[in-house]
C-alpha cells in the first residue's frame, strides 16, 4: 500500500511540509527550502534560503521583494521537468492563475499529492492554461466556493466595458484591478477585443506590466497615467489599484467612471459599497462549477482545502462521495481577489 499523503505531508505553523523531502510549499515564514506556486504575496513570502519555482515566478519575486529577499538560492524549474528530492518526485504543472503559476505535484512511494495553489480553468492570454494531474490527494483553494459564484466569460465583461466607453466617450473609465495578474489579463483581453489605444496605468501597476512584457507577454502600448490636464484622458481606459478608483487620484481624471474587475463583483452589495459604477466580473480563481469539476476530474479520494469557504465545498464533495478536509492554513488569502 502506498503511504497515505497525510503520513508524509503535515500542516505546520510555517505551512504545508513534505517530511521526506524536507521542504515546504508556499511557507508563510522564512524556511530553508521552499517550493512556491506563484508570486502573489500570500504564497510567495520573503526570506527563504532556497526557493524552487518557475523562472517567471522567481522573476516576479525578485521584482516585488528585491533580489536579497527573494531567496538566497533560486532554482528555476520548467513545467513538467522532474526532480527527485530525498526520494520524493516533484514536478510542476501550469495552474492558469497568473504568469508562472504552477501546481506542485509530489509523489512518494507510489502515493501522489497535488498542491494546486490558486488556479482557474478559463483561458487567459497572459499565462499557460491549467493542466490536470490525477492524484490521490488534491489540495485546493476555495476562494469562490459558494453556488452563487458563477463567473461569466471574461470576454463578455470586456464587451460590456467597451459598450460603456462608446456610450460615454467623454468620461474616463478607471478600472480597479490588482497589480499581479488581473491588470495584465485585462490589458490582454482589451487588445484581443480590438482596443489598440495606449493604456494609461497608475504608477503602482507599471513595474509588473513591464516585467510581463520582458517575459514575452504582449500588452501593446502602456503609458503612465500622470495626471496633468484632465482632458488628456477623456475617453481612455485607465487601470489603477482598487484602492485608488474612488480617491483623489482618480477624481483628477476627466469625469472618471469607476469600474472594478473582481470575482466579488458577482455580489451586488460589494459592488455598491465601493462606489463602483461598472462592476466587471473577471476572476483569476476557479468559480463554483470549476472547483467541483476539477475536484472530480483529478479522481482523488481526498480533497484538502487550504483556505476560503471550505464548509460549502466539503459538503458538496461529500454528496459526491469525496472526502474533504479543511487545512486552515493561516496567512493565505491576503492578496489579489482573496478578500478585499
Ligand atoms: Zn493567487
From TrEMBL:
Main enzyme class: hydrolase
Residue span, Metallo-beta-lactamase domain: 27-167
Keywords: Exonuclease, Hydrolase, Ligase, Nuclease
GO MF term (any one): ligase activity
EC number: 3.1.-.-
Pfam families, A to Z: Lactamase_B
InterPro entries: MBL, Metallo-B-lactamas, RibonucZ/Hydroxyglut_hydro, Xnuc_lig_assoc
Protein's recorded name: Ligase-associated DNA damage response exonuclease
Organism: Roseococcus pinisoli
Amino acid at each position: 500500500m502506498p503511504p497515505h499523503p497525510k503520513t508524509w505531508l503535515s500542516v505546520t505553523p510555517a505551512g504545508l511540509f513534505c517530511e521526506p523531502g524536507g521542504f515546504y510549499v508556499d511557507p508563510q515564514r522564512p524556511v530553508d527550502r521552499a517550493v512556491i506556486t506563484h508570486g502573489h504575496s500570500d504564497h510567495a513570502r520573503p526570506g527563504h534560503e532556497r526557493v524552487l519555482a518557475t523562472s517567471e515566478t522567481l522573476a516576479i519575486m525578485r521584482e516585488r521583494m528585491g533580489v536579497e529577499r527573494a531567496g538566497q538560492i533560486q532554482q528555476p524549474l520548467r513545467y513538467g521537468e522532474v526532480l527527485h528530492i530525498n526520494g520524493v518526485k516533484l514536478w510542476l504543472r501550469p495552474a492558469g492563475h497568473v504568469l508562472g503559476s504552477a501546481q506542485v505535484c509530489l509523489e512518494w512511494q507510489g502515493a501522489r499529492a497535488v498542491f494546486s495553489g490558486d488556479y482557474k480553468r478559463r483561458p487567459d492570454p497572459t499565462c499557460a492554461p491549467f493542466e490536470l494531474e490525477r492524484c490521490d490527494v488534491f489540495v485546493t483553494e476555495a476562494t469562490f466556493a459558494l453556488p452563487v459564484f458563477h463567473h461569466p466569460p471574461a470576454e463578455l465583461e470586456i464587451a460590456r466595458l467597451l459598450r460603456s466607453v462608446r456610450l460615454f466617450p467623454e468620461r474616463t473609465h478607471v478600472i480597479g484591478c490588482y497589480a499581479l495578474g488581473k491588470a495584465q489579463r485585462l490589458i490582454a483581453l482589451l487588445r484581443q477585443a480590438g482596443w489598440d489605444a495606449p493604456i494609461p496605468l497608475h504608477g503602482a501597476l507599471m513595474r509588473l506590466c513591464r516585467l510581463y512584457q520582458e517575459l514575452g507577454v504582449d500588452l501593446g502600448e502602456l503609458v503612465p497615467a500622470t495626471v496633468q490636464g484632465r482632458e488628456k484622458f477623456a475617453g481612455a481606459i485607465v487601470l489603477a489599484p482598487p484602492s485608488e478608483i474612488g480617491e483623489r487620484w482618480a477624481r483628477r481624471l476627466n469625469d472618471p467612471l469607476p469600474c472594478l474587475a473582481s470575482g466579488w463583483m458577482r455580489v451586488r452589495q460589494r459592488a455598491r459599497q465601493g462606489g463602483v459604477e461598472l462592476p466587471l466580473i473577471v476572476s483569476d480563481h476557479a468559480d463554483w462549477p470549476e472547483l467541483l469539476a476539477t475536484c472530480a476530474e483529478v479522481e482523488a479520494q481526498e480533497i484538502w482545502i487550504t483556505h476560503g469557504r471550505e464548509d460549502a465545498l466539503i459538503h458538496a464533495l461529500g454528496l459526491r462521495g469525496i472526502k474533504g478536509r479543511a487545512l486552515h492554513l493561516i496567512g493565505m488569502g491576503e492578496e489579489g481577489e482573496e478578500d478585499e
